[in-house]
Each structure stands twice: as structure tokens, then as C-alpha cells.
Amino acid sequence: MKYRRLGNTGLTVSEISLGSWLTYGNAVENDTAIEIIDKAYELGINFFDTANVYNRGEAEKVVGEALSKFERSSYVLATKLFAPMGDGPNDRGLSRKHVMESTHASLRRLNKDYVDILYCHRYDHDTPVEETLRAFDDLIRQGKVLYAGISEWSAAQIEEAMRISDRNLSNRFVVNQSQYSMLNRKIEAEIIPVSEKNGIGQVVFSPLAQGLLTGKYKSLNDIPADSRASNDKMNESIKSMLTGSTFDKVSKIAAIAERLCIPMSQLALAWVLRQPNVASALIGASKPSQVEENVKSSSYTIASDVFDEIETVLQ
Length: 315
What we know:
By secondary structure, the chain is an alpha/beta fold. The chain is built from eleven helices and ten strands. The protein has helices spanning 30-42, 58-67, 96-110, 129-141, 155-168, 191-198, 235-239, 244-260, 264-273, 288-294, 304-314; strands at 3-5, 12-14, 16-18, 47-49, 76-81, 115-120, 145-151, 173-179, 201-205, 278-283. Strands 3-10-9-8-7-6-5-4 form an eight-stranded parallel β-sheet, covered by helices on one side. Strands 1-2 form a two-stranded antiparallel sheet. Helix 1 (30-42) packs across helix 2 and helix 8 (244-260) packs antiparallel against helix 11 (304-314). The protein starts with a strand and ends with a helix.
């Protein structure tokens, strides 16, 4: 496993990180989830990601339990807040009240004294950014959060937050979590340039396009029985990805991977990691063997002519 600095911070994270969206506390049994986390840690992954909204806190409980056997300083733990966690009007968003209460609730579920990274899961149009930034700054000063991040914010929203942080001499956002893969490159146009300008590192999710870039899906009529798409709890989230318009690109990428004698998933992850602003590619796994295969991409180097060939396919 190779490691990278997260943006301009001194924090070092594994190039491959493990997430818990749609899996732990939901579609994957707890014992299996713990086995997966154990395998990830064994293979050198030191970066684990979750969120309070993932199955209404159940994912945090599983991740916290699984990591409890390891030295706290040996891993980086991230969680998120924004989405509704109750029916009350203040049970959502990025108000100071919700930020503080949600963070304390996450720490209880995780059974940890602090989280390394706390993300604003989305942008809150109903709360002044300055209010959110002051709440995050207080949590960092209290030692309950070490670094602040955002997820799926626009370039303009990131710039706004940076200006306010600098004006108030408060802690800045240092990490952004966005979707990024061969099949979704939207962050290349504005998000990455703004992030590089402001010392923000990327932690990208769905680098395998929810399994579409693993080679397991050949067509809409050929869905493996043990895949995410065949799981009733997963089906809706991945359904939009399984369209005929993308299968031509996927088949061509698969042919390149076959010629290189590596799994397509490793090629897809290595392609994401070619981007210097990406600190870590966040994978999901429903079995330990998937982690074993994906971590190999950290040591794989793609030749420039292969990048050019892939670029031609994607365009």
C-alpha cells in the first residue's frame, strides 16, 4: 500500500480507503463487515469512511466496533453530517445546533473520543456558511474533530468558505469528497483546480462506478447473482448506472485491462490515482476478497500511452 498526504495537511492516508455507504449496517451482515474491515487494515488501508445517515447510524456502529481492536492512532476515521437524522426541523442541515448534536451522536455510536475528519455531507442553503464554519472550528479546537471537509460542494461554494475562513482566521476545509471515475469526470473542470489552489485534497467515491468498472456486468441481461445490483437493498442505487449507453465504453476499457493482464477494477482505480490532487480512492466491498483485489491498484503504474488510449475511449 502506498500513502499520500491529504491536500496541504501533514495527514497521510492510504491511496485506497474503505467506505460503508449502502453496505455496513444494511446489505452486508455485521460479521462480514467486520471481516472486511479487518482485511483492509491487514492490507495497509488506514483510512475508513462512514456517515451518520448511512442506515441511520448503524454503519457508524459497525465501523466503530470493527476498529475498536486497533490502536486509535493507527487509522484515520471520517464521518459526515447534513442529511435528516430525525423528524424534527433541526434534525438536519449544517446549523450550529445540528452540527454539534450530530457530532456528539456520531462519537457515541462510533465509541470514539474524536474523528479525524468530519465532512459537511452537502451544502446547506438554509444556513450561513459562517455559522457552519464557526461550529466546525469550535469542534476542532475542542479536539473532537481534527480536520474539516466538504462533500459535493460547488467550486463557488468552496471558494466562499475559504474566504470566510481566512477572514475569521478559523480552520479551513482541507478535504473534499466527490464522485469521480472514468465514467464521471465532472470534478476535473472546476473542483480540482479550485482545490489545488486552496490546498484541498480529494477523496473520491464510486471510483468503480458502483461496480460497473469491475467487469462483472456484461449487459443489462447479465447481472451476477452475487453482485450488488442483484441485491434488493442495493438495486435502486445502482439501477441508474446500468444503462446501455455506457456498456460500449466499459467493454473497450475491459479489453485494455485484459491486454495488460490486470483486472479492470485495478485499471480503473489506477486511472483515478493518476490524478495528483486525489489523495485516496474510496472503495466499497461486500466481501474481503474485493478488498484484496482493489488494494493492488496502489502499486500499479499505468504507462502514458495507456492513459492516452483510455482517454480516446472515454471521449
